[in-house]
Amino acid sequence: QVQLVESGGGLVQPGGSLRLSCVASGSIVRINTMGWYRQAPGKQRELVASITSAGGTNYADSVKGRFTVSRDNAKNTVYLQMNSLKPEDTAVYYCNADITMVFIGVRNFWGQGTQVTVSS
What we know:
Elements: E1 2-7, E2 10-12, E3 18-26, E4 28-39, E5 46-51, E6 57-59, E7 67-72, E8 77-82, E9 91-101, E10 105-110, E11 114-118
Parallel strand pairs: 2-11
Antiparallel strand pairs: 1-3, 3-8, 4-5, 4-9, 5-6, 7-8, 9-10, 9-11
């Protein structure tokens, strides 16, 4: 099996910064695209940013220029650096990854989520 474990959420004032981390562990052959999604109360889950195994990135328009996604393939870890945070960034942030597993092939996995609250 595979697990994704997020960390780094919390309460921050508007204009502040947070860095989220997500570590993948288990029967992993290869981690393909990794990404961050978020879900605010009463809203659908949305893509925030993603990064391919080659380092190609994609961002939601609402976070471009403020958030940066990166990964450390040696550590099976993806990061989300969030700067200039706004109250509308408040949400549960979820890690997502397409992972090639031993004997099974490619499967998609979600982390348990980490709360980010932007408030004064």
